[in-house]
From TrEMBL:
<keyword id="KW-1133">Transmembrane helix</keyword>
<dbReference type="InterPro" id="IPR012902">
    <property type="entry name" value="N_methyl_site"/>
</dbReference>
<feature type="transmembrane region" description="Helical">
    <location>
        <begin position="7"/>
        <end position="30"/>
    </location>
</feature>
<dbReference type="InterPro" id="IPR051621">
    <property type="entry name" value="T2SS_protein_J"/>
</dbReference>
<dbReference type="InterPro" id="IPR010055">
    <property type="entry name" value="T2SS_protein-GspJ"/>
</dbReference>
<keyword id="KW-1003">Cell membrane</keyword>
<dbReference type="Pfam" id="PF11612">
    <property type="entry name" value="T2SSJ"/>
</dbReference>
<dbReference type="GO" id="GO:0015628">
    <property type="term" value="P:protein secretion by the type II secretion system"/>
</dbReference>
<dbReference type="GO" id="GO:0005886">
    <property type="term" value="C:plasma membrane"/>
</dbReference>
<dbReference type="InterPro" id="IPR045584">
    <property type="entry name" value="Pilin-like"/>
</dbReference>
<protein>
    <recommendedName>
        <fullName>Type II secretion system protein J</fullName>
    </recommendedName>
</protein>
<dbReference type="Pfam" id="PF07963">
    <property type="entry name" value="N_methyl"/>
</dbReference>
<keyword id="KW-0488">Methylation</keyword>
<dbReference type="GO" id="GO:0015627">
    <property type="term" value="C:type II protein secretion system complex"/>
</dbReference>
<keyword id="KW-0812">Transmembrane</keyword>
<comment type="similarity">
    <text>Belongs to the GSP J family.</text>
</comment>
<keyword id="KW-0472">Membrane</keyword>
Length: 177
């Protein structure tokens, strides 16, 4: 009795084919997980950039001086007070701040009272559209500020990156009790 044990060539080819299919399926699954993680990471970075930009605007609006908000086509200008001074540099308590959209980016420019040195900061990239409105008791919502009427709220509508439209209404100090 000469009984040989082992696998036939056909059985080996079938085993290799099954192993290759399992390997290909595992690779596709792994690739899908990596791509999803990269997409989620980019989405998270976009959300953080938008939150950071809105946070800076919100801080400036909360510290705005009464009757200093000027809204004109293409930009927002206000004067803020009580701003941080981490380096204890000599400077005034007031700061003129301007926001404007240039070249697809939202820019913030600030100048301390009594100085000519302007600090320019890019807040947000890939901005498709930006609009501002102010609310006052006499006229309601408007795209420009009027003389003699102090705005109570500021509305920001921005379209940036993958976010089609983000709307934020910020109360000005005059509106707070």
């Amino acid at each position: 009795m000469n009984k040989q044990s082992g696998f036939t060539l056909l059985e080996l080819v079938i085993a290799i084919a099954i192993f290759a299919l399992l390997g290909l399926a595992s690779w596709r699954l792994f690739d899908g997980v990596v791509r999803t993680q990269q997409g989620a990471g980019q989405h998270e970075r976009d959300i953080r950039a938008l939150q950071r930009a809105v946070g800076v605007i919100e801080r400036d609006v909360w510290q705005a001086v009464v009757d200093s908000v000027v809204l004109a086509p293409g930009h927002l200008r206000l004067q803020r007070s009580h701003w941080r001074n981490p380096l204890d540099q000599p400077r005034s308590e007031r700061q003129a701040v301007t926001y404007q959209l240039q070249g697809g980016a939202l820019w913030r420019e600030s100048v301390g009272e009594g100085t000519t040195l302007a600090q320019r900061q890019k807040l947000l990239d890939d901005v498709h559209s930006l609009s501002w409105r102010v609310f006052d008791r006499q006229r309601g919502w408007h795209r420009e500020t009027a003389r003699g009427s102090a705005p109570l709220a500021l509305e920001l509508i921005v379209s940036a990156g993958r976010f089609e439209q983000v709307r934020r209404v910020l109360l000005l100090p005059e509106a707070l009790p």
